[in-house]
Design brief:
The chain has 13 helices and 22 strands. By secondary structure, it is an alpha+beta fold.
């Protein structure tokens, strides 16, 4: 790389999501000079597109909402979901460092949190699970005016229609949501005060700016610089050409997953995944660099699965939306191409995603793709048809197929009409009995949270008949919030080689690394939790590397 321009820092971070920003701030606090680079033109990554909630068991805010947790309870819960796919020492690192990360960020940065009351874990009935909530935390509204000339440099979310509310102010985030008054909302808008992932990304950006760490945008990492088996820097592609950026202490990969690279998706994921809802720059750059450096990989078949709805560009510029709360409401079911229900529609989105991978071995096809969310006029009259969190849709758009009867709707979908009639009849009978014996919808405290916001905690929060036309169908695809496989790391977030030894000078955090959660998802904020915790660990360890006495 002779002749290239050179720069040098103690720690170099690739990526400006929650993992990268956290790593940069922590490394700086522990005495390192830091540079942080972003491939896109705006910062924040998928974090800025998200709901911004962070799942941290045993966090210091839980007592504020009357919930008391413990390390032992949290570990029992996570390990109960493991299916022998978790590395216990990474679970320990996550649980032990999570509360410390929260306390550090609140003491040293503008990042502040509060616990979300009553919001249950995703599998609250498992040993150690929390049906009463508290493990999920989120940031208060943040005034972007405080970012100065960086005010417009956080990538806006295409999935949260209103940036001026928090998740707790939507039906997805609180037992009975209390949106801001029109006057308060207008005030927030006037001062560019934002919630959800925008608040988290904005606060993290402010934390960096306060320390003189200015993200370098439109700069993509292309190749790690390795000398004598040690990572000593990275070759960056910048608007001014290639630059050799040296790292005296370490390079931290925080560049996101590989869900937007079709070749990598085909090579690694365990089932169909055609509609990711993460930022488009998640194309596996960090994964490829780590593989070239000899990294061992882990958890490669997994993603943070989520059902995704297909919409026209005028409804959403991405042509797709997250299907989360919509499918949990009464007066709706989901059916496959045979007109049959195939799973608990109110299950958490990650677990739900596994239903898309079921094979019909005799026909050599995926049994549950394509599929549709079927709902009736009762649903529309009661809840409207919303295609984004915080959105408002009292009228079903023309592009949604409909029919006055189930048979008429089935004909438009190419689904067996008689089978759909039988499916709806059985569903209605089960609703009348107050129980879903087929798939257990409404049995979990989680199911009864994600439903009618005024019936939460009851089965009828999610159980409701389909009996009044028109009947509607919303096509659903297999999507993800991001992949969760990548280089294997140790409890210090050091990337390991194929022999299980650390690659000196190389770290990973966030969706670029092999997730400590295996195939599961602990609770709301289960992606951002490990991202921030392992970013915290990576920044601290990298800053202390090659320091006498560290």
């Amino acid at each position: 790389m002779a002749g290239l321009p050179k720069e040098e820092f103690d720690v170099v971070v690739l990526g400006t999501g929650a993992a990268g920003f956290t790593a940069a701030v922590v490394a700086h606090e522990f005495g390192a000079s830091v540079a942080i680079f972003e491939k896109a033109s705006l910062v924040g990554g998928t974090t800025a597109w998200s709901g911004g909630q962070v799942w941290i068991p045993n966090n210091p805010h839980m007592p504020e909402v009357g919930v008391h947790d413990s390390r032992e309870k949290a570990k029992t819960y996570i390990m109960s979901l493991s299916r022998d796919m978790l590395e216990e020492r990474l679970v320990d690192a996550y649980i032990d460092n999570g509360p410390d990360m929260v306390e550090f960020m609140e003491a040293k940065t503008p990042v502040q949190f509060y616990a979300v009351p009553e919001m249950p874990d995703y599998h609250p009935e498992f040993p150690g699970g929390s049906p009463e909530g508290g493990r999920t935390i989120e940031c208060p509204i943040f005034p972007f005016e405080e970012l100065g000339e960086w005010e417009d440099m956080v990538t806006p979310s295409p999935y949260f229609a209103d940036p001026h509310i928090t998740m707790s102010e939507t039906p997805l985030g609180k037992a009975v949501p209390k949106p801001p008054s029109p006057e308060e909302h207008a005030r927030r808008k006037a001062h560019n005060e934002r919630g959800c992932g925008q608040a988290l990304a904005g606060r993290l950006l402010k934390a960096c700016l306060d320390r003189g760490i200015y993200p370098r945008v439109l700069c993509a990492g292309r190749e790690l610089i390795i000398e004598n088996g040690e990572v000593v820097g990275v070759l960056m592609e910048t608007p001014k050409g290639s630059v050799e950026v040296r790292a005296r202490k370490g390079v931290i990969l925080a560049s996101g997953g590989f869900e937007h690279d079709k070749d990598l998706v085909r090579a690694f994921t365990r089932g169909p995944m055609t509609h990711p809802v993460s930022i488009e720059t998640s194309t596996g750059d960090g994964l490829r660099m780590a593989m070239k450096a000899g990294a061992m990989l882990s958890n490669m078949r997994e993603a943070w699965w989520i059902p995704t709805g297909v919409v026209p560009p005028e409804a959403n510029r991405m042509g797709k939306v997250l299907v989360n709360g919509q499918r949990t409401l009464p007066h709706s079911i989901m059916v496959n191409k045979r007109g049959r229900r195939f799973t608990n529609e109110a299950a958490n989105y990650n677990a739900f995603g596994a239903a898309f991978h079921v094979e019909n071995v005799s026909k050599f096809e995926y049994e549950n793709l394509p599929c549709w969310l079927i709902f009736d006029q009762q649903y529309v009259d009661t809840y409207g048809f919303r295609i984004s969190a915080g959105g408002n849709g009292s009228v079903v758009p023309d592009w949604i197929p409909r029919g006055e009867t189930p048979q008429e709707l089935a004909a438009k979908l190419g689904v067996d009409g008689e089978e759909l009639v039988r499916t709806i009849a059985r569903w209605n009978d089960n609703v009348a009995e107050g129980h879903d014996p087929d798939f257990g919808r409404g049995d979990s405290a989680f199911d009864c949270w994600w439903g009618d916001p005024y019936r939460k905690g009851r089965r009828d929060a999610t159980l409701g008949t389909l009996e009044r036309g028109p009947y509607y169908a919303f096509e659903i695809k297999s999507g993800c919030l991001g992949t969760k496989g990548g280089p294997r790391v140790d409890p210090n977030a050091c990337v390991l080689n194929v022999d299980g030894d650390p690659i000196p000078g190389l770290y990973a955090a966030g969706n670029v690394m092999g997730s400590p959660f295996g195939m599961t998802y602990g609770g709301p904020g289960g992606t951002l939790g490990p991202a921030m915790v392992f970013g915290f660990i990576a920044g601290r360890h990298a800053a202390g590397r090659n320091t006498p006495g560290a």
